[in-house]
Design goal:
Number of helices: 5
Strand content: 35-45%
Largest sheet: 7 strands, antiparallel
Helix content: 10-25%
Shape: rod-shaped
Radius of gyration: 42 Å
Number of strands: 38
Number of domains: 3
């Protein structure tokens, strides 16, 4: 039996829903033509580095006609017999007298359904295929036995149907998704530029992230992979929206690496696996936005380009997007306490300081000492929430200490106690840490904050050598007075 003209015409013009369209171009000729020799399927608009596979469902025995309205005689390929006779293909194809005919409606949606089911059957049953990886935007399958083929693209879920008689051309309709990651700068919340590729934060601060997936036709096997470096601790929850509307959690699975049952093996911090039913709803350029948070922890890299958060999307058979990365920076504040002697700087120990974001020095920042025992320079970091720390720093013999894990901000360094014998600072020192880590004191950019203490001059006292001299002079005066009195008394008596 031959396929009816109507069915053949549909196969020639069908454009698959969700992706790859197929067009059948029949060879011109008069009367019936024996389907001998080989054919070619060419895929245009192919995506470089993607793999294309073709599966032969039916063999073409003969065809006739002078244009695309010709007649075609098909027989089933052995490995597809179960699919057509007892499987899902029986709702679309019927074998009669050894020949295959289309049954039922011939609209594009239904034909697309058939193509998807045929491909699923091929994959499940490991049916032999011919595969080519695209080096350019064109892929050609040559020397093919004539027949009816389902065509698969590794980039997406969409497949095509076409007949080699002997040549056919298919347009790739699957699209390549993309991801873009951003991080929120807390000092700019409410402004148009609060989301970007980098931010600054204190250790212990919550950092908000946002990943945007731009979907494309043929969305298949969408899995979002997110990797945080050691300085970031994932908050454990995500919020997903599509086109501004919340996506129900039944449409995806959150897998966290710290959960042993999650089976996250690629080094990621977490993964979001979207269901195929959800992927099937996606249209070209629809945006899926995933929002989540992390805490900058005590392992954070200081004053560098570390503390990175990287995201990628895997899709299709084994494809993945270009990764997108954000950087969270945190900084340090070195301080040197000193005095001058003989025009040289001399370190001062025993000065006590606090660091605050308040102009009057109140509400000092809680710190955790990290310097090793017997270290000449003291080091501290900003304490995390719930940590027991200190609010004062005492200068060691070197006069130097460093506070790490600071956000870009304005700080006030207050001397609460000066070393014995020295004058205390009259007001806090204003220190500005810029978003690039530059430290400014007043109008001067510095590598460390240098705090000078002066000692007062020695004032006159009632002790020491001055007192001894007074005592000596007093004794002399008393002696002289005594001599004078005795002399006068003797003169009076005589």
């Amino acid at each position: 039996m031959k396929l009816i003209k109507k069915i053949a015409a549909i196969m020639l013009s069908v454009m698959m829903v969700l992706g790859m369209a197929s067009v059948v171009s029949a060879a011109e000729g008069a009367g019936a033509t024996s389907a001998t020799g080989n054919g070619t399927i060419t895929i245009n608009n192919a995506i470089p580095k993607q793999t294309y596979k073709i599966y032969r469902i039916l063999e073409l025995e003969s065809f006739s006609g002078t244009d695309d309205t010709g007649n075609y005689a098909y027989k089933v390929v052995d490995r597809w017999n179960n699919f057509i006779t007892t499987g899902e293909g029986k709702d679309y194809l019927k074998i009669k007298d050894g020949y295959v005919n289309w049954i039922g409606a011939t609209d594009k949606v239904r034909i697309a359904e058939f193509a998807k089911k045929a491909l699923a059957y091929a994959i499940e049953n490991k049916i032999d295929c011919t595969a080519e990886t695209a080096a350019t935007t064109t892929v050609a399958f040559n020397n093919l036995p004539l027949g009816y083929y389902v065509v698969e693209s590794s980039v997406g879920a969409l497949c095509g149907l076409t007949t080699t008689n002997p040549t056919a051309t298919i347009q790739e309709k699957n699209g390549v998704p993309s991801v873009e990651k951003k991080v929120q700068e807390d000092s700019k919340v409410g402004k148009t530029d609060d989301w970007g590729i980098s931010n600054t934060a204190d250790i212990g601060q919550t950092v908000n992230f946002q990943t945007t997936i731009t979907a494309q036709p043929g969305a298949q096997n969408y899995v979002l992979h997110d990797k945080m470096e050691a300085g970031l601790t994932f908050g454990g929850t995500v919020t997903v929206t599509k086109n501004g509307e919340n996506v129900d959690a039944t449409n995806y699975t959150l897998k966290i690496a710290t959960d042993s049952s999650a089976n996250v093996t690629d080094g990621c911090t977490f993964e979001i696996v979207f269901t195929q039913s959800f992927c099937n709803t996606l249209k070209a350029d629809e945006q899926i936005i995933v929002t989540y948070s992390a805490t900058l922890n005590e392992k954070a890299a200081i004053a560098g380009e570390e503390n990175k958060n990287t995201t990628k999307l895997t899709y299709g058979d084994s494809s993945e997007t270009t990764p997108s990365t954000t950087t969270t920076k945190t900084f340090e504040l070195p301080v040197f306490k000193y005095t001058t002697k003989d025009s040289k700087e001399k370190a001062l120990a025993g000065a006590i300081f606090t660091l605050s974001k308040n102009t009057d020095g109140t509400t000092p920042i809680n710190l955790v000492e990290t310097s090793e025992e017997n270290a000449t320079e003291a080091t501290y970091r900003v304490a995390k929430t719930g940590e027991t720390g200190v609010t004062t720093v005492t200068t060691p013999s070197s006069g130097k200490f460093t506070i790490k894990g600071l956000d870009a901000d304005t700080y006030y360094l207050t001397e609460t106690k000066q070393p014995d014998g020295y004058n205390k600072l009259s007001a806090p020192i204003t220190v500005v840490i810029a978003e690039n880590g530059t430290i400014t004191v007043g109008s001067e950019t510095v590598d460390e904050v240098k705090v000078l203490n002066n000692t007062g001059t020695l004032l006159p006292t009632t002790g020491g050598n001055g007192t001894s001299l007074i005592y000596f002079l007093g004794a002399v005066l008393a002696l002289v007075s005594g001599v004078v009195l005795i002399t006068k008394q003797r003169m009076k008596n005589s």
